[in-house]
């Protein structure tokens, strides 16, 4: 179950078994000039990433698992094996028939076990540069993000860290960046296109009074920078040794992002809570990493109220996904908008299946009543007319009029 199968470099795809992780695949691909870009930070299994529809730092440029899974082999609860795009098929097109693949992507293991996933690969970019840019305020950093995306810069990664998170990362990863709201950026492309992307981005950040870019050009410095970003969770926990971390997961339309981050920071201060913020701001998604003392009931209560406020504000602003999975990491219970999301999920599913039952009812009615009985009776006068005009001889008419017609159609449709 840990094999990398069927690599097709010329078609930019590969099939992997469930135990293959993102890093293992990329190490395997290194000499081919290809890579798989979806990077949720953790070295997760690719089938698990498909099951959770993982996104991450590169999603702004390359999309999430949803856009990068081509086919899945899934074992259903009754043991049936399903190939969501057809056995051995690797189509990029999803409009021909049901998009079964995306029914299973993000289904969190509830619809079946993914035993193989076929993934879309990309060429390793000719050139890559990373940069760090500091801002005087959260609003300026997030405004810059929105404007960079609106300007159509095909930026590969754009990650926001607030001052508290920068402090945590500096301490944890021995860095010395200014302790202010910061953007980590990465550009991919040819040398020429990089220059253009960087120029436009710098113009925008400077119009929002951002600092000069601090560059990470060589692979080692880049990987140190992004390691620091990916270690943000551990860096946040290290702010208060002995405490537990709990991550919220908020996703709003991009235009609402500055407002919600600014309000969240104000709320954290008023509630006297430690909650460094890091986010894939290009997707309108940010995490507030609550660092909480689980033995302090008053603090737990304040976290509870804070996350409830964050969840309801998020819903009002056009939510996509507050963390409705109860990942409490040792906390007694911090229900965010779990009830709303749970009932939303269940009621949507019920609607789908109610719709499906109706569809099947119509289909079965056609199959069992219309085709075997009504269709032959409609055809009989047509056959008689054809016979009258001499197009059909006696034997043909007799055959068509017989029950063979209904039986034949029924057999064809079964
Ligand atoms: C430090 C950290 C940072 C993260 N940051 C992000 C982020 O920024 N963006 C993001 O999108 N995600 C993020 N994640 C979540 C990450 O995407 C998921 O943890 C990962 O995709 C799940 O894969 P896994 O192999 O760990 O699966 P598991 O944790 O083992 O399982 C996760 C779910 O998938 C199901 N599942 C697993 N394997 C299969 C399978 N073969 N078939 C069917 N169902 C299966 C399980 O039943 C479970 O419901 C982060 C996680 C960590 C630890």
UniProtKB/TrEMBL annotation:
Going by the record, the broad EC class of this enzyme is oxidoreductase
- Per the UniProt entry, the Enzyme Commission number(s) are 1.1.2.4
InterPro entries the UniProt entry points to: FAD-bd_oxidored_4_C (IPR004113), FAD-bd_PCMH (IPR016166), FAD-bd_PCMH-like_sf (IPR036318), FAD-bd_PCMH_sub2 (IPR016169), FAD-linked_Oxase-like_C (IPR016164), Oxid_FAD_bind_N (IPR006094)
Q: Where is it found, in Gene Ontology cellular component terms?
A: mitochondrion
State its location(s): Mitochondrion
Q: Name one Pfam family in it.
A: FAD_binding_4
Q: Which residues cross the membrane?
A: 341-364
The answer to whether keyword Cell membrane applies is: no
Q: Which GO terms describe its molecular function?
A: D-lactate dehydrogenase (cytochrome) activity; D-lactate dehydrogenase (NAD+) activity; FAD binding
The question of whether tRNA processing is a record keyword is answered with: no
Q: Which cofactor does it need?
A: FAD
- Major localization class: mitochondrion
Q: Which residue numbers delimit the FAD-binding PCMH-type domain?
A: 1-124
* Keyword annotations: FAD, Flavoprotein, Membrane, Mitochondrion, Oxidoreductase, Transit peptide, Transmembrane, Transmembrane helix
Gene3D superfamilies, alphabetized:
3.30.465.10, 3.30.70.2190, 3.30.70.2740
What GO biological process, any one, is recorded here? lactate catabolic process
Q: Which family does it belong to?
A: Belongs to the FAD-binding oxidoreductase/transferase type 4 family.
Q: What is this protein called?
A: D-lactate dehydrogenase (cytochrome)
Q: Which organism is it from?
A: Oryzias sinensis
């Amino acid at each position: 179950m840990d094999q990398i199968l069927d690599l097709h470099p010329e078609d930019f795809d590969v099939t992997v078994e469930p135990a293959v992780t993102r890093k293992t695949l990329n190490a395997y691909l290194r000499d081919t000039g290809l890579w798989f870009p979806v990077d949720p930070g953790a070295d997760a299994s690719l089938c698990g990433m498909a099951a959770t529809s993982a996104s991450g730092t590169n999603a702004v440029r390359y999309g999430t698992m949803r856009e990068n899974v081509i086919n899945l082999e899934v074992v259903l609860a009754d043991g049936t094996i399903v190939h969501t795009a057809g056995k051995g098929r690797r189509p990029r097109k999803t409009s021909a028939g049901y998009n079964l693949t995306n029914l299973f992507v993000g289904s969190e293991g509830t619809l079946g076990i993914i035993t193989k996933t076929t993934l879309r690969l990309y060429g390793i970019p000719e050139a890559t540069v990373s940069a760090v840019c500091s801002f005087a305020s959260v609003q300026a950093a997030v405004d810059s993000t929105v404007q960079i995306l609106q300007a159509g810069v095909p930026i590969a990664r754009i990650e926001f860290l607030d001052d508290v998170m920068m402090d945590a990362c500096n301490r944890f990863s021995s860095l010395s960046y200014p302790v202010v709201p910061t953007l980590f950026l990465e550009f991919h492309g040819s040398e020429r296109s990089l220059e253009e992307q960087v120029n436009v981005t710098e113009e925008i950040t400077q119009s929002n009074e951002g600092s000069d870019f601090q560059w990470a050009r060589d692979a080692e410095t880049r990987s140190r920078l992004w390691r620091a970003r990916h270690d943000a969770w551990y860096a946040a926990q290290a702010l208060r040794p002995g405490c537990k971390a709990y991550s919220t997961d908020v996703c709003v339309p991009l235009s609402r992002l500055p407002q919600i981050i600014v309000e969240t920071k104000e709320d954290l201060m008023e509630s006297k809570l430690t909650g460094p913020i890091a986010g894939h701001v290009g997707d309108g998604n940010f995490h507030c990493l609550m660092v909480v003392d689980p033995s302090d009931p008053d603090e737990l209560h304040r976290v509870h109220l804070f996350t409830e406020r964050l969840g309801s504000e998020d819903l009002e602003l056009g939510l996509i996904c507050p963390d409705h999975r109860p990942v409490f990491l040792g906390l007694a219970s911090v229900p965010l908008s779990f009830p709303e999301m749970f009932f939303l999920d269940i009621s949507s599913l019920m609607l789908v299946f109610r719709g499906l039952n109706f569809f099947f009812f119509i289909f079965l009615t056609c199959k069992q009543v219309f085709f075997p009985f009504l269709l032959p009776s409609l055809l009989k006068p047509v056959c008689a007319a054809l016979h009258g005009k001499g197009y059909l001889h006696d034997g043909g008419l007799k055959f068509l009029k017989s029950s063979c017609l209904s039986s034949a159609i029924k057999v064809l449709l079964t």
